[in-house]
């Protein structure tokens, strides 16, 4: 049976070109990047080339990039590392109610350690309110951490305005851009972003590699003890092969963004239009304009999304009922709850996220099977 994959927000397949670039670093180029002899220097060179590619993709300096093991680690390092290093300046952090758990749970941990966190509301489309943001800033506020684009509903936040508010108030601004990188062109300087988290497996690099951008001059502490890798900010021998893969993948996708987005949008919009035409009692979640080009999040009233997923799987169709990181959690999604969905509607929601290899024929197949399953 042909697998039709519509869960690119959960993870993406690794591109052939990326695998090819990585292979030598699993084999003949096995050196540790911290050692002095040539094998180690080759690894170091490869790390630096990847660092340059990541930096070019977001318009920063390569020495502002720190490699990590994933997006979650990047979020933890940015938020905890910054909070610990700046606790003499204040203890208040602002975030939103629809962040990924890598941010929300990090904030909860900091609350237990005496920090104060404000969780901003979002409106029905998932946007934070800039007036509310300005109003909750106080003299103790040290950090604003608001995601670039939401992993469930795809809504893209007004990042430039948030960056401006942070700058005007002399507050550091971190954004979890795990879903945005590889989908949107991001210029950290133009957007006044001080720290940014990204993760390779969302843009056709392997799972288990990420990066954190920290603007020069921003103080943050390492949160994992050990060696002095990554300018003594992230202990642990660098995963050279995967970092090489991350560099290649971000370079490739950034060069193709326009075409990639156009194609994704066409397929996604076709799917939404056909669902609207053919299936009653639906609700499209998230903003229709300011959303990730591959994301469609639709509630099918009266349908149990978990059962729907099992049925779709029988036809080789992979999609998601919420974010992949919380599929074992029977509670309704905190994102859908925050935008006002009741529990029943939240639990009848399907996220379809389109990617590079999808075709119009895939979308037709998906709509046909959805119609059939829901009718029955
Ligand atoms: N932040 C967002 C918005 C995400 O969507 C994810 C993963 O789905 C993460 C953080 C965590 O990234 P990783 O899976 O690399 O730890």
Walkthrough of the structure:
The protein is an alpha/beta fold and 376 residues long. The chain folds into two domains: 4-12 and 257-375, Aspartate Aminotransferase, domain 1; 16-255, Type I PLP-dependent aspartate aminotransferase-like (Major domain) (Aspartate Aminotransferase, domain 2). The protein contains twelve helices and twelve strands. The protein has helices at 16-22, 38-58, 71-85, 101-112, 130-136, 159-168, 229-232, 240-278, 305-314, 334-338, 343-346, 360-375, and strands spanning 4-5, 65-68, 92-96, 116-120, 141-145, 172-176, 195-199, 210-214, 282-285, 295-300, 317-318, 349-353. The strands form three sheets. A seven-stranded mixed β-sheet has the order 2-8-7-6-5-3-4, with helices on both faces. It has a three-stranded antiparallel β-sheet with strand order 9-10-12. Helix 1 (16-22) runs antiparallel to helix 8. Bound molecules: pyridoxal-5'-phosphate.
In this entry the ligands are:
pyridoxal-5'-phosphate
Proportion of beta-strand residues: 5-15%
> The biggest beta sheet, please?
7 strands, mixed
What name does CATH use for the topology of the largest domain? Aspartate Aminotransferase, domain 2
CATH superfamily of the largest domain: Type I PLP-dependent aspartate aminotransferase-like (Major domain)
